[in-house]
Amino acid sequence: MKERMIRWLSILLAGMIAISAGTVGFCADSRDDLTDTGALSGYRLGYMSWGVRHTGLDVLQEKLENSGKALPEVRVAVIDSGLNTDNRFLKGRYVDGWNFINNTADCNDDQYHGTMVSGIIADATSSNVKILPIKVNDKSGRGNMKNVEKGIYYAIEHDADVINLSLSASDPSHSLTILDEAIEAAVDAGIVVVAAAGNEQGEAGDQYPANKSNVLTVTSIDKNNVIGENANTGSAVDFAMPGVMIWAPYKSGLTSAFVDTGTSLAAPHAAAAAALLKTWDKRVDQDAVYDILKEHAVDLGDAGFDTTYGWGTIDLSDFDISAQYVPPVRYILGDTDGSGAVETVDATWLQRHIAGMETPFSAEELSRGDVDRDGVVTITDATAIQRYLAQLQIGYPIGELT
After folding, report:
1. Catalytic residue among 29, 80, 109, 346
2. The domain spanning residue 137 has which CATH number?
3. Known catalytic residue at 80
4. What is the pLDDT of residues 27-68, one digit of tens each?
5. CA-to-CA distance for 347 and 334, rounded, in angstroms?
6. For labelling, which of 25, 208, 214, 375 has a CA lying 20 to 30 Å from the CA of 345?
7. Is residue 319 situated within a structural domain?
8. Are 197 and 233 in contact (CB under 8 A)?
9. Catalytic site residue from 264, 285, 346, 353
10. Do the domain assignments include residue 321?
11. Please, are residues 117 and 166 in contact by the beta-carbon 8 Å criterion?
12. Is 264 marked active-site?
């Protein structure tokens, strides 16, 4: 597939036109560069940004830290422009990543965007949460979707728990698919994938991968829960997170920081929330995180879901870390005995059922063998399972999770 240039989510400055597709725009409605002023010199980890308290992540973080339990390492892959490893704010908060531009392990951020996103995640999480930097964008703010795809697979292979995609490509025709398989693989692996909605003051559904149904799409709000000035909205938006006038570390200097605005800053607040929920229980997946965030949503705009704020912003301050997570039961097509694999015994039971022989399975259990999805279990299904076992090519996904 032809590689497509992507652009980071943003507007160059308020009042300027949007950067055309194929280039990368800097996320800066406003920026106050405090490079080397010592802004972070006396800083205690956590809560530099108002957004952390606004979403209750400060309370959840402290609950987890004070739980008396060893907190597992949770990795958040930031697929972006790299990371300023010298900044004191990020000391001890990252693991080695990869630079897909130069194919090296040097992920130094010579733009700023990746350091900003990583810093927001570090700001909102406990020290067990580590950034996995994956560089796909160069110093001029340019990259391509093929490298983003590689970055997602790299994140899967290197044990990421959450992936943050504060990037997008214009996709009004909904024709882009280059990341589809990679995102699906990540979600299937239990990774939570977060995408920023974009800053064109238009439809989030016209941005890729924000328009994917299997990502958490995040738009931005200010301190007063008002939608960000240039933030995209629409039915693709799931949640609205802090993204206006957010403090973050800068790409250079030991203690440098700056203030910025955009949905690129809102997405990492959601990624941080997912990382803390993964700290609570590593088994929570995309669906579980979505349900928890929805349960703890602060309704904004019209009652319930609306096309400006989605389900609203979140407040996890009252999240009960003593609760027990019960993973949902997932069935595999054709796995009638629930062994976790499609085997010859499944085909045998199906054939006995078809022949009217008595079986210990319920109608619901046997319906899992409906591999051709016509609503009934027939000899076609049993034959298909046997062909699958004989490694003959068939046209439907036996073994697919449902």
Report:
1. 80
2. 3.40.50.200
3. yes
4. 333 334 444 444 444 444 446 789 999 999 999 999 999 999
5. 8
6. 375
7. no
8. yes
9. 264
10. no
11. yes
12. yes
Domain that holds residue 338: 329-402
Residue 233 contacts residue 307 (beta carbons within 8 Å): yes
Establish if 362 belongs to a structural domain.
Answer: yes
More confident residue, 2 or 219: 219
DSSP string of 46-110? S-SSHHHHHTTHHHHHHHHHTSSSPPPPEEEEEEES-B-TT-GGGTTSB---EETTTTBS--B-S
Q: Does 320 map to a domain?
A: no
Q: How sure is the predictor about 135, in pLDDT bands with cuts at 50, 70 and 90? A: very high
Do residue 279 and residue 386 come from a single domain? Answer: no
91 and 194 fall within a common domain: yes
Per-residue pLDDT, averaged over 330-337, amounts to 70
With a cut of 60, say whether residue 195 has pLDDT above it: yes
Calpha distance 349→352 (Å, rounded): 5
Two structure tokens written together for 12: 């160059």
Q: What is the mean pLDDT of residues 289-308?
A: 97
Please pick, among 54, 113, 296, 353, the residue that the annotation labels catalytic. 113
Query: 342 and 221, same structural domain?
Result: no
Does the predicted model carry a pTM greater than 0.90?
no
- Same domain for 213 and 70: yes
